[in-house]
Fold:
Amino acid sequence: MDDSEEQESVYPTTTCRALLPLLQSEVAHLESKEIELASQIRALSEALVSVRSTLSTIRVRANECARRISPTARLPDETLLAIFEEAVSSQDVCSRTRIESAISRVSHRWRRIALHTPRLWTRVCVTPDTDECDTQLHLARSAALPLDVEVWGWWDYRDSFTRPHHFEHTLAAILPSASRWRRIKIGASCDALLTSLSFILRTVGPLDALQQVTFKAQQPGQICPTTLLMGKSAPNLRFIDVENIVLTVRSPCLHNSDFDCFGGVTHLTLRLHEGDARALKTTMELQGFHALLLRMPNLVSLSLYGELVCVKSTTSLEDQANITLPRLQTLILHPNTVRPRYLLNIVAMVMAPDLRHFELVYPDSSTQGLDISDLLLKKGCEQPTPKFPLVKRLVLNNAANITSAAAFIQAFPGVDQLTISGADVGIFNIPTWEVAGGRWRTITKVILRPSQRDRLTAVVNWLDAATSNGEFQVPLVQGPITDCPIMLHLYEELKRYTQIELLDMDSK
Structure:
């Protein structure tokens, strides 16, 4: 029996006739219900649209109110901009996300401030993580302002294998803006890419806006190429801060007319990247250093860090020629060893009649730093006369003990601000002060780097004796913050004589 025959047997004709009106009535009822529900859906949809519109408006108003009452929202644009500038200038050069780019995506207000401030975009970094599009964006948003270019972090030439020609392409993106470069900072890169960079920079047109060149070695023993000093392509070069530059008396940059730009340099900082025996390959000859200074008669500041000058044992102070730097006002010496072989020669060589800031910082050590006090006083007269009589700011660390302190006081008679640490407590020894003739009556500020109890005790005794006759102008004393009860008690003792300021000082 087929299916149709089975259905006819289940639903006889008479049954179907009786069931049909009921089914039709149910269909009509459900259709009516469907129309009713559809009408309700349309009404609810319209209500939903209205609620969503109202909710959006209220959210905007609520967010606006929240912004107005939040501390950040109440900051003027100028204050926000100052914060942005500090964040941009202090960010890590190798940061994958540039802070200025992140700022521009926070809110409409922040984006408006960022895009209308070209100076936020003047720091252009060329690193393995730099995107060429981001570099182009910085160049466009910086308008026509001078640029600070940093080539950094190319530790291994194999970086170019993962992204072929990435270094060349990224560098090529900024080369058209070379006329706007104000500072260029190069460092933490392998020799292969340094060689490539030196060659590329030699082909760049005049860098008329370039004022500062900085180089930091990747490791001890890596030599700074002299071509990175730009030569004649940077006629307005004023600041040089480089590590591991190797100079001899025959170095081309000391004789070649292409480096006449050295004549305009006002600030010279030379450093030695130390760490192991490889650093010995990157010291310069004393004659080469002398020749370099001869090419820089307009120096205002000279800073030397590390044992970077090689002095032959046969070189005597009497045989070497002096060099006069008439405009030098700052001389900073950080030998990084308590027995530097070159220091006596440098101090004896440099004549700076207008020097105002002298800084000699030896490492903290139980061993006293090399005594140079004899070289700070000119002999041959009835009384020794100061070699640097106009110094106002004196910074010493482990440089003056009780036996040499009197000579330091005599060598710098016009000191206005004194910063000491290490073994230099001898300066506050009362007998030493009497031997020196009671000088330094013009001193207005004493800065004590992280101090020990005996040093503060000496300062208290010195102030007590120096102020007893009422003729001495009491200086301001600044010292490090401490929680040591003994130190705090001594600070209270100092308050009897002078004003005390406690600072958060780096222990180094």
The chain has a mean pLDDT of 84.
